[in-house]
Write a structure and sequence with these properties.
The protein is mostly loops and 147 residues long. It has 2 helices and 6 strands; from the N terminus they run H-E-H-E-E-E-E-E. It has one domain: 3 Solenoid (Pectate Lyase C-like). Helices cover 10% and strands 11% of the residues. A 4-stranded parallel sheet has the order 3-4-5-6, with no helix packed on it.
């Protein structure tokens, strides 16, 4: 009946951050989704934690607390850990490529023998963080906090 004026309509692209509290399932929904938002509740069940270590790439970790988790030998590509509290997490022998750790709390983390390529650690917080034997290549450490 009435014609819609398309010029006055706002641009309504889907923003992945608007669905932060959406439950994540690791079945057919994961295969269809390009990026999945990870929440700490997924780590409560060991089955989900094991599946997560295999499917960590190209995902968004929600701004939340992930204490003392093990990401050993994980291969992560284009994973967003920005603004996450990752105190005490173990990334030893992990392969991290093009990951975003901007403004993350990385105190007491272990990156020993990890391969870290083209990752951003802008304004991340480091204290007692171990990088022994790590291969960090073309990473951005601008404005990091060392206490």
């Amino acid at each position: 009946m009435f014609k819609k004026n398309k010029k006055n309509l706002p641009n309504r692209k889907k923003d992945p951050f608007l669905e932060l509290h959406k439950k994540v399932s690791f079945n057919e929904d994961y295969k269809r989704a390009k990026r999945t938002i990870i929440t700490p509740s997924l780590f409560k069940d060991k089955k989900n934690k094991n599946e997560l270590s295999k499917m960590i790439s190209n995902n968004i970790f929600r701004e939340d607390e992930y204490y003392n988790l093990s990401f050993c030998k994980v291969k992560a590509v284009k994973t967003v850990f920005a603004f996450c509290d990752l105190r005490g997490c173990d990334f030893s022998e992990a392969t991290l490529s093009k990951c975003d750790f901007s403004f993350a709390d990385l105190r007491d983390c272990n990156f020993s023998n990890a391969v870290i390529r083209e990752c951003s650690f802008r304004h991340a917080r480091f204290k007692n963080t171990i990088f022994s034997g790590a291969d960090d290549f073309l990473c951005d450490f601008q404005g990091v906090i060392l206490n």
